[in-house]
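Aim 2 progress update. The chain analyzed this quarter is reproduced below.
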Amino acid sequence: MEGDRERDPLHSLAGCERILILGRTGSGKTTLARELAAALGVPHVELDSLYFGPEFSTAPLAVLRERTSAAIAGDQWVTDGNKRAVRDLVWPRADTVVWLDYPVYVSLWRLAQRARTRTRSLRTEAARTGRRSGLPRQMLAAASGVLTALRSHRGQRREYPRLFAQPENRHLAVARLRSPRATRRWLARVSNDADPPG
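Predicted structure tokens:
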């Protein structure tokens, strides 16, 4: 992919200070961002945690943008998320993109596993407390995640290369990873090359 010619994040994260993980719903963006941030010894900024509150409540747009600006003000971080509402804040600050461009079945399988785990947890909590209000919301969230993954599959493959090629995004060095196995190998390689956290 086009990007900063002096950096090649597919093989090394040398010179990569602010890394954005992109990918469709269920691709494992947050897990990878957390692991990569730990390996590099830099903060992990989870955009979803700035947006979602208790019981699937969401922050108003102005609050989300304010929280995001504050969270990415530092010189080094790894963040994850596709939110268009803060793209104009995050992309100019980032210098590197890691794009998890997996087959759609990977996301669907992971979403199913996530829904099963969360539903089991909510059922356990409901049995303990007698409250069942979280279960219907969890089922709606799971269905929404599947629809989002299906809708975004082709859209991201068309949109991201076009966005990366735009002049305002030419500063981004891009690593496009096409399978979980490729991502595991990549993470092991760049983690081994990284300086140990200080």
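The chain has a mean pLDDT of 81. The beta strands are 18-23, 44-46, 77-80, 96-100, 173-177. These observations will guide the mutagenesis experiments scheduled for the next reporting period.
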